[in-house]
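User: Just a sanity check before I run the rest of the batch. Below are the structure tokens for the first item. I only need the designed sequence back.
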């Protein structure tokens, strides 16, 4: 199968205990031609857990060794937690290692964390979502050292709101500005299937945004499960290929050594999935 899961966390991420080798075994069992890991490296977070950066010298060595041992190509990506005051440090970090793929995500803003919830204090739902999109816009307008934007409407996963759904129309100007900046910079977005496994039951971003991206001329798109457990690896990837086709997408992107490869979506399915 040619479609690689482009968003996978291992025990090297502070919020995952997933064993690297078990992912390799799963990828092989699924008949995948390669595997990609995208562990967390967050800059500017207040969350102590996320402040420790992986020893990438050893990480790359380990991956090289496992690649030989398990006979499956391993691509090393990274999910950067972006914060504007740390832009120079992020560029410096990315310049030091030979990553295959970089996801840029907003996990916190204005010195507050979405996951820990403090970002939402004193804000209405609309204010919180709008501020999140503004922070994301600031990122794509000022930072270009990434390949895709992670989980574009991820804010909807968090927050103390009973009804977490949002309408694209309510945030159209800021979301359109984000998508246009991504396209203008020849960058891409990901479709993150983790939301399908949660209470929202939608991808990040949701279909309305995926449609709009295409309409505005967006083409580069990767698919990732955002697995933090071995059992979530490759979850929803193939159904999402079908869904993208249904939305009008002609292909799915893949990255090796920061170079984009575009795989046209074909409907040559066998019992195991795509050839
Ligand atoms: Zn993330
Ligand atoms: Zn992630």
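Assistant: Here's the designed sequence for the first item:
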């Amino acid at each position: 199968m040619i479609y690689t899961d482009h968003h996978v966390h291992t025990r090297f991420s502070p919020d995952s205990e997933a064993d690297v080798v078990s992912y390799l075994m799963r990828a092989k069992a699924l008949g995948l031609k390669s595997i990609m890991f995208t562990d967390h490296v967050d800059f500017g977070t207040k969350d102590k857990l996320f402040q420790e950066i992986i020893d990438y010298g050893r990480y790359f060595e380990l991956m090289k060794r496992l690649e030989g041992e398990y006979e499956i190509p391993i691509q090393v990506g990274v999910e950067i937690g972006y914060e504007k005051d740390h832009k120079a440090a992020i560029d410096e970090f990315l310049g030091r290692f030979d990553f295959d793929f970089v996801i840029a995500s907003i996990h916190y803003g204005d010195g507050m964390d979405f996951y820990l919830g403090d970002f939402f204090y004193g804000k209405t739902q609309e204010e919180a979502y709008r501020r999140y999109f503004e922070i994301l816009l600031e990122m794509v307008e000022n930072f270009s050292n990434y390949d895709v934007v992670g989980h574009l409407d991820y804010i909807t996963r968090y927050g103390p709101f009973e009804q977490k759904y949002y309408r694209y129309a309510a945030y159209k100007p800021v979301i359109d500005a984000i998508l246009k900046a991504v396209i203008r910079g020849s960058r891409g977005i990901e479709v993150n299937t983790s939301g399908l496994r949660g209470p929202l039951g939608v991808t990040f971003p949701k279909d309305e945004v995926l449609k709009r991206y295409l309409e505005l001329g967006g083409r580069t798109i990767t698919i990732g499960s955002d697995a933090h457990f071995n059992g979530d690896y490759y979850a929803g990837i193939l159904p999402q290929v079908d869904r993208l086709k249904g939305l009008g997408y002609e292909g799915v992107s893949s990255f090796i050594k920061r170079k984009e490869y575009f795989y046209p979506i074909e409907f040559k399915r066998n019992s195991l999935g795509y050839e």
